[in-house]
Design goal:
Rossmann fold; single chain; four-stranded parallel sheet; globular; about 45% helix; alpha/beta; about 15% strand
Length: about 240
């Protein structure tokens, strides 16, 4: 019997969204595995987000060591905002450190977004985030640092906790930030449920729509050598 391809995800504590979305996207022959990262305070709240990001990064080696026990083909840090905290060089150094320690390809959610946008041929992207405004602006600046233009951007209003948000609100956010100049829509934040609305958002906006979740799963599968087209969740997941 052919051994399943295993994909490992490092998930923030309190995130109820990542596991069901990744299970939903995994094609036959692929299994997904999860380890919770270390953070303190109210998970999903705007308050203390930066501190939680730094705590997760500080404990990452321990979490990765646990995840390697299932021998995944690739490991993904399923938290986009950690990349904004690390910065460009810090993110690059972290990836190199994890690969050297484990011998396993290591992806970040944000790095997967960049790879996905490049595969789609996108240079101008609309950005929607469930974060506080200043955190969203860090997302915008980080996209621009990597050579992308961000003609439309905004936050989801009246968020009490990211993990309490709904797909319907994610769809509204995507429509809100879209502009005619944008070639695609990007919804950041793995904790916000997005998978089920991406195809509708694409159809209604007339352009590709991706999220941190769809990008990291697509990138992880391709890195693991899985080329299956996954339909029903936006253009990206159908691409080789």
């Amino acid at each position: 019997m052919k051994r399943p391809v295993r994909i490992g995800f490092l998930v923030p504590p309190g995130n109820p969204t990542c596991e069901p979305e990744m299970f939903r996207l995994a094609p036959p022959g692929v299994t997904v595995h999860f380890t919770r990262m270390v953070a303190h305070g109210e998970a999903g709240s705007h308050k203390g987000q930066e501190e939680r990001n730094r705590t997760q990064i500080a404990h990452l080696e321990e979490n990765v060591a646990l995840l390697t026990m299932v021998k995944p083909a690739v490991i993904v840090m399923a938290h986009t905002a950690s990349s904004y905290t690390l910065g460009q060089q810090g993110e690059k150094d972290l990836i190199a450190k994890m690969v050297k320690a484990t011998g396993i390809p290591f992806l970040t959610a944000f790095g997967s977004v960049l790879t996905a946008l490049d595969r789609l041929g996108v240079k101008r992207v609309a950005l929607g985030a469930p974060y506080a405004y200043d955190s969203m602006m860090k997302s915008k600046a980080y996209l621009e640092l990597h050579g992308l233009q961000v003609p439309g951007y905004g936050v989801l209003e009246n968020v009490v906790n990211i993990y309490d948000e709904t797909p319907e609100r994610a769809y509204e956010l995507g429509r809100k930030v879209d502009t005619s100049e944008a070639q695609a829509i990007f919804l950041t934040g793995v904790g916000m449920p997005t998978i089920e609305i991406l195809e509708k958002l694409e159809r209604d906006a007339g352009k590709p729509a991706i999220s941190s979740a769809s990008a990291m799963m697509w990138d992880a599968l391709r890195t693991a050598g899985v080329k299956d087209a996954i339909t029903g969740y936006g253009k990206l997941l159908s691409l080789p």
